[in-house]
Sequence to fold (417 residues):
Amino acid sequence: MKFAVSLLKLAQDAKEAANRLRLATTDEKNQALELIAKSLEKEHEQILRANGEDLRIGRANNLSESLLDRLSLEGGRLDNIISDLRHVASLPDPVGEIIEEQKLQNGLLLQKKRVPIGVLGVIYEARPNVTVDVASLALKTGNCALLRGGKETLNSNRALVHAIHKALAKSPLPKEAIGLIKSPNRSQVKQLLKLDSYVDMIIPRGGEGLHQFCREQSLIPVITGGMGICHLYVDASADLTRALDVIENAKVQRPSVCNALDTLLVHRDVAATFIPEVVKRLNNVSFRLDSRALKITQAGKLAEDGDWKTEWLSLVLGIKVVDSLDEAITHIQTNSTGHSDGILTNTESHAKAFVEAVDSASVYVNASTRFTDGAQFGLGAEVAVSTQKLHARGPMGLKELTTYKWIIKGDYHVRSE
Fold:
């Protein structure tokens, strides 16, 4: 394959920078992160101006409200991003940690030591916050990152990476550690997936189409995630008044994100009284109802089969009446993407059964699915929310951006057999 010269150069520079970055001390990495935070503060007005241009173009191109919401850095979001960056700097550095250690009978000392992965290729859409989150987590763990955002956020990403590069130029870390693929040409995504000589891991953040494309085309290991079809099951024993607060938070607080609620399952014993209360509370939400829920309330339309496998990313909620905990679990096992699913119950045995049976990356008892987030989990930020089972699951913070190597210490040992 013929690679774009600029992309190949970015990857080569990142690989070389990774060899230098893995030797950086914690103090050097934290110093760089603080310099980036200050640079983002200094460039605050220019970044918001660039983001405003992306929003203007997005509206002109009829982007959905959910995409525009994810694209926006307004309303204090940029300040929150900077705060999260500083939180990452304050966290313990996982690199160099001895995970396991044992001494064999022959006297060899074996250690498993946590080390950086190397070069990360991150592909994402309409989320300029990812640019800073990935940069901070990558640098803290001694990794380099090649960033490929969507065309709808190109101005924002250019402004953010410009501020990051200005900071890195003053820091002990190589500026090439963070690279931005500026071309909106989608062919460069396919080319990035073939750069296995330079890139060690691909992390796509987007819809199922992007994930499938990366799985099919990549010569590099792919961590998939970030697509959430999230459920809450309201058990017959749930505190229905408090359950309304959780459901409203999970659905309405920020409906355009992957941890927002998509389907509400309600036990038949409380459905007749509880579903009308849900409809009343969520008065700005559209509903997709199964036949039994539709008999209880006419405030929606009959759900189609595909609705139960839809990540709404908007003010739409599916509601289904179930006969039992087992039926709720079966529905989740059939339709969930393994992101975030929960139960609202006051019966401990039901909570335990749900937690054991539902094999999602994040499983909740009496809490909103909106907590599936690196900052909310105390990780500082996240590079993605993994919904697969190898290497990492759930919000990927600092430790999830490391691997390990074996260190074997001997006294001039030789193998005898």
The domain at 230-371 is CATH 3.40.309.10 (Aldehyde Dehydrogenase; Chain A, domain 2).
